[in-house]
Design goal:
four-stranded antiparallel beta sheet, disordered N terminus, 434 residues, mainly beta, cell outer membrane
């Protein structure tokens, strides 16, 4: 009975640990920045300093002083490509020497294509005060590895969805100062699975699967200072402690491990997503040309560990580091009804060499974007944006182990690489001012 409990808890700890480990996205680790079709065309280089509902996610001060209701929606198609390649990963089963992990040595396109919708609306209470609401999905992804992949003990299928509801208020304090504050109400839902090694390589793998969800709270505050030429914006989005509660199913273990097949319910995992410190500016260089710049600091060091509740009562180190992104872009008014945009963004990954696994094959990247707005009427406009994201090759090299602390402990020395990764993101949206 003791062996069964110990093995079950060890396997469950491994499964729950993956609950908070999404795969590479398009801004920082598993954060998705595609929350505005207007911003997509300039590589998200001016959002904290721009005005109206399209910028509400970045800065609630953006809606202060609006003169009429404002609504915006956008949809992004995210089309990633890339390979996760084995460079000599080995496993040591109980009583044996290290041997090759086996399985398919190349996992092509493990990050699934996806569609990301978002929307925001703002309503003026008077000429200085406005309220608003944005709905976004800032941490969402799906990855799939074949059950025959070399990375199967890290991940087979992973699916995470978050929904952020942000009620906001903005106030024009003076003719040159706007301030705003917001509450971030986030719902998270995760389903993920991975293989478990049996004691002999000739035996089929076992499986473990986790499902969990939870509601959590954060906040955002910001300001904008402006005159006829320059607008400077600053915002702080708080870190959020996520608490997922769910079930772990362990099956398919054979021989001496068979007793650890089990279903554990009501297990809680706690982890943080980072705060964002956002500073940006928009400069009206001419009557037609606006220059944009934005820097974001992400406090990913908050994601230092995943803390597991009873009956596991342990912590799984993640050791992310703080990181940042820098972006510059332009808006150019070709005519009163047509604006073109372009931008470039550089973003550094918070994952570190020696700590990166196949479930999070993230790396530094460049984002090259272009887009535009067509103003159909004085009230209705349409936005489009397209981005090419180029990811640097990066090592997949985090050592792991199954059944840690038991007689069946099975270490895995990971040696792999993310290669030729890139993504195309196509965004379209509309804005209505009533």
């Amino acid at each position: 009975m003791y062996m069964r409990t110990q093995l079950s808890l060890a396997a469950a700890a491994s499964a729950i640990g993956f609950a908070a480990l999404p795969s590479a996205a398009h801004a920082q680790a598993f954060y998705l920045q595609e929350q505005s079709s207007r911003g997509a065309g300039r590589a998200f280089s001016g959002e904290v300093a721009d005005t109206g509902a399209p910028s509400l996610w970045w800065n609630p001060a953006a809606i202060a002083g609006i003169d009429r209701p404002d609504a915006a929606i956008s949809v992004s198609a995210i089309l990633p490509k890339g390979d996760v390649v084995d460079n000599g990963t080995v496993i040591r089963r109980p009583g044996q020497t290290f041997a090759p992990i086996g399985g398919d040595p190349v996992s092509g396109d493990p990050i699934s294509k996806g569609v990301l919708p978002s929307g925001a609306i703002a309503y003026p209470i008077n000429d200085r005060i406005a309220v608003g609401l944005s709905i976004t999905s800032p941490y969402s992804f799906t990855t799939k590895y074949d059950e025959t992949s070399w990375a199967r003990y890290s991940a087979t299928k992973t699916k995470l969805r978050t929904f952020d509801i942000q009620p906001s208020i903005g106030v024009a304090v003076t003719d040159w100062l706007r301030v705003g504050a917001a509450l971030n109400v986030e719902y998270s839902d995760a389903t993920l699975s991975n293989a478990l090694p049996n004691v002999l390589a000739s035996l089929p793998d076992g499986q473990q699967r986790l499902t969990g969800d939870g509601w959590d709270l954060g906040w955002t505050a910001g300001f904008q200072m402006h005159n006829d030429v320059v607008t400077v914006g600053f915002a702080y989005k708080s870190a959020i402690e996520h608490k997922l509660k769910g079930d772990v199913e362990i099956s398919g273990l054979l021989g001496p491990l068979a007793a650890s097949n089990a279903t554990l319910s009501g297990i809680e995992a706690r982890f943080y997503t980072p705060a964002q410190i956002i500073l940006g500016a928009r400069v009206k260089a001419t009557d037609k040309l606006t220059l944009n710049g934005q820097a974001v600091r992400y406090t990913w060091n908050k994601f230092d560990a995943i803390r597991l509740g009873a009956p596991l009562n342990t912590a799984l180190p993640q050791n992310y580091r703080n990181s940042y992104s820098l972006a510059g872009g332009v808006d150019y008014d070709v005519s009163p009804r047509f604006t073109v945009r372009a931008g470039v963004q550089r973003a550094l990954t918070p994952t570190q060499d020696g700590e990166r696994d196949a479930r999070v094959p993230d790396s530094n990247r460049w984002n090259y974007s272009a887009g535009g707005t067509f103003k159909a009427t004085d009230s209705l406009s349409f936005d489009i944006g397209a981005a090419y994201i180029d990811f640097a090759d990066a090592t997949i090299d985090r050592p792991t182990a199954a059944y840690v602390g038991t007689a069946a402990q099975t270490p895995i020395i990971t040696s792999g690489e993310l290669q030729d990764a890139r993504a195309i993101v196509l965004t379209a949206g509309a804005r209505m001012r009533f």
